Amino acid sequence: MNSLAGHLVKYGKHRTRRSYSRIKEVLELPNLIEIQTNSYNWFMDKGLREMFDDIMPIDDFQGKLSLEFVDYQLLEPKYTVDEAREHDANYSAPLHVTLRLTNHETGEIKSQDVFFGDFPLMTDQGTFIINGAERVIVSQLVRSPGVYYNEETDKNGRPSYGATFIPNRGAWLEYETDAKNVSYVRIDRTRKLPMTELVRALGFGSDDEIIDMFGGDSETLSLTLDKDVHKNAEDSRVEEALKDIYERLRPGEPKTADSARNLLTARFFDPKRYDMAPVGRYKTNKKLMLKYRLLGNTLAETLADPDTGEVLAQKGDTVTKEVLKKLEPYLDRDDFKMVTYTPSDEAVVTDPVKLQKILVYSKKDPERVVPIIGNGHIPLEYKHIEPADILASLNYFFNLQEGIGSTDDIDHLGNRRIRSVGELLQNQFRIGLARMERVVRERMSIQDPDTVTPQQLINIRPVVASIKEFFGSSQLSQFMDQTNPLGELTHKRRLSALGPGGLTRDRAGYEVRDVHYTHYGRMCPIETPEGPNIGLINSLSSYARVNKYGFIETPYRRVSWKTHKVTDKIDYLTADEEDNFVIAQANSPLNDDGSFVDDEVMARDKDEYVETSVENVDYMDVSPKQVVSVASACIPFLENDDSNRALMGANMQRQAVPLLNPHAPLVSTGIDYKAAHDSGVAMIAKKAGTVEYVDAREVRV
Questions:
Q1: Which of these three, 410, 428, 462, is where a domain ends?
Q2: Does residue 557 lie within any of the structural domains?
Q3: How many CB atoms lie within 10 A of CB 562?
Q4: Model confidence pLDDT, tens digit, residues 81-123
Q5: What is the 3-state secondary structure (H, E, C) of 178-199?
Q6: Rounded to two decimals, what is the model's pTM?
Q7: Which residue range(s) make up the domain with 435?
Q8: What is the layout of strands, in order, in the sheet containing 173-177?
Q9: Same structural domain for residues 384 and 362?
């Protein structure tokens, strides 16, 4: 038998097959249901605690009582998985929370364990048992929080720009220019007002301060300042701006500067009401920090080391990758090109604002000097918007009109993220806790503060109801497709753009549904439904994984930049990291030492396929099947199929009825063993051993 072509490969203990593959497998496939299990484990370890820490402590209206969260624990489940199926019950465990009630008047502290309802548990197969039926929570693909810039062309062929600050929870902030090149801002989808009014409300009232901050050469800024006239001489410019904003947000109500300050603070600067989430802060910093914005610009000032005076870059130098590498350690410092602006005492936030500012030449008019303003160094823990973010985002907006900076593609997978089961549960739990918080406050004011206990204050009904509603009736909680093991596995790896906070079928256009170049290695370009949901429901690619921010990463083999040899070192890249590299295909021929056989190879550079010298290649694909999902990878000789037929084939495999006596396929791609193993349908021993006895009910190891 061994005289035949190919080589023998062992699957499990007893199955040996002949493989004709020519490409060395350098990376094992990951656990195919880890998108479900990892997310749920994160929720149980960290997400639930985050939730309680966000909502608590709860204080009463007079400040006499305070209810704090101490700890939580899950007890043993009432039923096992099989018993829950038999009894048409939930597979869940009682959640007990330890709460501490402090009476500030007497100093008395009462601690108590409070039952918070039964919390559904995930089975080892990544599913939930609800009322005896197995359900799967489908992961949702949504737009990431952050700041996004877009460009449109008006009817005269002139470009006009817009921007949107999207939080995870809270008010939207939108910027736009009109036909006369005047810039406006909209707060929370209300009527627009001149952009400079927002800057004045932040405490920079005079025209001179605004010109000093943003540079006086901007035509848009000059026209906006002309539009923003001082109407009421009795009010200062800051107070007038505050009242104008209040009038837009609360039309018809009596406007005062104090009520405007309180409203704006609640809308944007209160962490309980405005939440960017860690991912929003990460994306905002990546867009607005100075070190990400200098590349390709020509400096209009000389940059020197603040300690030694050594010149780092001369006026007139263009910032290349090499120059940026040299500047980066300085740009990360708190004393390099930092400017502190102090807002007036009438402003919404009166703390000094630290911005990082470097002068460059405009790309549209190389004579003109334009400042690039970064948002300083805001830590990732800050989940709400800061005045520095608003000012830096306005500067980015003005810079776009000078040809500096770039607009964003909302269909790029660097701007879309996955909300998996853990985050969806956390959001639902937050809704329940917020409803409960209101009840607790009301009960605090009614009950006698000396005798009240945490148990008497807590009403768990809203929390239990919101979790029950989520599992019972959410669009993303679905009965598991149990036709065959592949159907189960695919269902757990499904990504949906529909659901609460996502798109709707009717409003989704062609662009959202289309295959994007960033899908490569992240989402399968083949497997998607054929009906009205085409392109809105996708499947995770076979090697893809989700990082801590919810962005999809795919693995690549690193190519040594010194020797240009392909190493076995694996790096996982997100879509926006991948844009900086040139990546060779997995089938590029290699010598035994890892060097490329040819001097020129086919490679990808963003959305272009280029034939390039091996010296330019940074990475190489790990496997040809990393592009497609598990179901598509089950199709032998997939590359010879028409794409429409491959789509039907991938979908129809999930509908095949299993045999009573299963057989290994005569021809397969080798992924079927892994798919059967991870689907959870096959019995897998927890520890190694010898099978001693088998009957219809049990297997003894």
A1: 462
A2: no
A3: 5
A4: 999 999 999 999 999 999 998 888 888 888 999 998 899 999 9
A5: CCCCCEEEEECCCCCEEHHHHH
A6: 0.91
A7: 34-136+418-462
A8: 146-153, 159-166, 173-177, 183-187, 193-194
A9: yes
